[in-house]
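quick one before i forget lol
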Amino acid sequence: MTLGKYLTSKSFFKQLLLALGIVVVLVFILLQWLSYTTDHGNEITVPDLKKLTEQQVEEKLDELNLEYVLLDTVDFNKDFPKYTVVQQDPLPGAKVKDGRKIYIKVNSADFGLVTVPDLIEKTLRQAEPSLLALGLEIGKKTYKPYLGKDMVLEMHSNGKKIKPGDKVKKASKIDLVLGDGKVGFEESEADTIKNNTDTEPAE
């Protein structure tokens, strides 16, 4: 086949199109690589936003050309001022592109309320995990005469008597009045002495 016929043949055009396709793909890959390496040098380090107010977050991120999205409030954390950032995503130190959104959650204004469980006539061993599971704390423990040792007789919070079903703030201290377990023995001993005295014959 002569050169002139080959240049006008279908085989030549197929190979030409294939070569052009390969060139286009290579150019595309090269441009993507250049774009990545160029942007890579412009990455921004995410700052630590914890304990900042929403206004402070906005000002700080504006300086870095980043944005933020407030997702939610979380249960009050006494280690953070109210209405300040408790959690963020991405975390501090992460590398992000220009204009990236930073998602934050802020602290509530105060502890939420929880319902006081029914612990009356439950043992101290049963009462403690029930209170801790609700985020409550064990306060003072006082004792008074009662047959059941370490049996819960009363509950108090901030000096006031509370009952099952009442609402108290999470992290409140619950003071417990417990049985000392001695009254049964003392009464039994007193009854025995009395009965023996009553049955002794008169001289």
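fyi The helical segments are 3-7, 10-40, 54-63, 124-133, 183-199.
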